[in-house]
Amino acid sequence: MNLITDKWIPVFREKRGADIIAPWEIVDRFDTDPVIAFNLARPDFNGAMVQFLIGLLQTCCPPVDDDEWLNWMTNPPAGLELEAQFMRGKTAFEFDGDGPRFMQDWDKSVAELEPKSIGALLIEEPGDQTLKFNKDLFVKRGGYPGLSYPMAAMALFALQLNAPAGGAGHRTSLRGGGPLTTLMLPKKSNALWWLVWGNVSAVSEMLPKVQNWDRELETIFPWMGPTRTSVKSEMITPIDTHPLQVFWAMPRRIRIDFDCVTDMECSISGAYEKCVTRYSTQNYGGNYGAWRHPLSPHYKKGTEELPMHPNAGGMTHRHWLGWSFGKNEGTSTVMEASIVRGANGRVRRRYMKALWAFGYDMDNMKARGWQEAKIPIFDFEKSDRDGQSKFINDVECVVKAAEEYCSFLRKQTRIALGSDSSPDSLDREFWGSTDASFRDILQSIYHQIEANMLTTPSREKWFEILQNSVLALFDKWTSSGNIEFENSERIIKSRKVLHSKKTKEILRRHLRIEETKNG
After folding, report:
1. What's the CATH code, domain 383-519?
2. Tens digit of pLDDT for each residue in 19-37?
3. DSSP 256-320
4. Secondary structure of 149-198 in the HEC alphabet?
5. Backbone phi, then psi, for 475, in 5-degree steps?
6. How far apart are CA 404 and CA 427, in angstroms?
7. Domain boundaries, the chain
8. In this structure, are residues 364 and 165 in contact, taking their beta carbons and an 8 Å threshold?
9. Is pTM, for the whole model, over 0.90?
10. Side-chain half-sphere CA neighbours of 11 within 13 A
11. Beta-carbon neighbour count of residue 486 at 10 Å?
């Protein structure tokens, strides 16, 4: 199977419904029956597939500048034109066969190692230690006995993109285990093309154009040449290889066994077809460091810029500012994804309506869950720097006030309960209960700035929303209904602190309400 020429990607078309396409057919019948969405059974596969297509476009036909980007955004290329562009990399996308295989190790001796069940490619599957000690209590072994070629290709690519720590020498992905990805969502949603092309960057030093395919093929696609190992912790950095390898990094050494193929029902798609059932793997594959992935926000740790990851608290409005515009806070700096930064105040921002953030919440080797969220973004003209700056400052106040009130809530709930810690889910409930209101406040502030109005009323409304949410959550967690187990004196005292004049003054100061009123 070749991942450029074969039809293997399940999608939905606007009229026909379910269909299977080759990558270049994403623009096929664009005006009459466009492809509108992926039809994959797993959310991590959706996230991997969109990155596969973005990487393919970025590698084979990147726009030179915003004008070229805008041309294909408003007038997508014909299918045959896109096919011709993709065919440049065709040899790197053979999935089976005797030659180099997509995302699989060059060294055929890897195939001679002890085989694993093909289902172990999936991140949530129990690892070797879990199986050895019979600890697969919630996610059982053997749930995926066979995968069709398309689903195996998807599982392999998703693993290389998200690879968590996997034991001695089993390397994490280029962005670490379970990285956060943020993509820009287009205002037009009735064609998948706009999502994919909307997240392709113009040619730059970081993402250059391929000059000579024959000479650069091995450095872009690591499986096309001898494996670079890391037995002595050797690192692969952007200066060691082609910068476009950022989309095609291969940290795991894997060979799928195509000699052990069975006609059966695919454990993911449900289709009855040829399925692979096992693979072999070797440790000490590519060890990536010092990369800046264009689709992920990063944060500074000392002099390093490290990719961000989802966490157990979920994706909420406390992340909005950093992911949308970047955020400086003391010694901590969050930098928005390069694709987002490049769009701020430029022509492409006018075509986008939101950020799509997604990724695995990992606890070392264990996948705790998949997270995703859609976060609104706002368009400011390139010339309106003052408006954008005021918007960012106001939103910063709104988020800081929420963080401060959440901190008060944790402390006073802990005191009221006489506990060393607050309830585990308290933060998550607070951010979740105020998320919809936060989006409304964002819209209000944006429209008030556009109309050159004071934004004080919106910040005052947010102040009231926070108060109501905090008191409601405090009452929920401190009122068990059983007086015998409650300390009424502590509860009343803590509630008074949350509702005190001093607390309100602190929050109003964060929101700059008095400051704005006075001047």
Report:
1. 1.10.132
2. 999 999 999 999 999 999 9
3. E-TTSEEEEE-TTT--EEEEE-EEEEES----B-S---TTS-EEEETTEEEE----TT-S-GGGH
4. HHHHHHHHHHHHHHCCCCCCCCCCCCCCCCCCEEEEEECCCCCHHHHHHC
5. -65, -40
6. 12
7. 9-282, 383-519
8. yes
9. yes
10. 27
11. 16
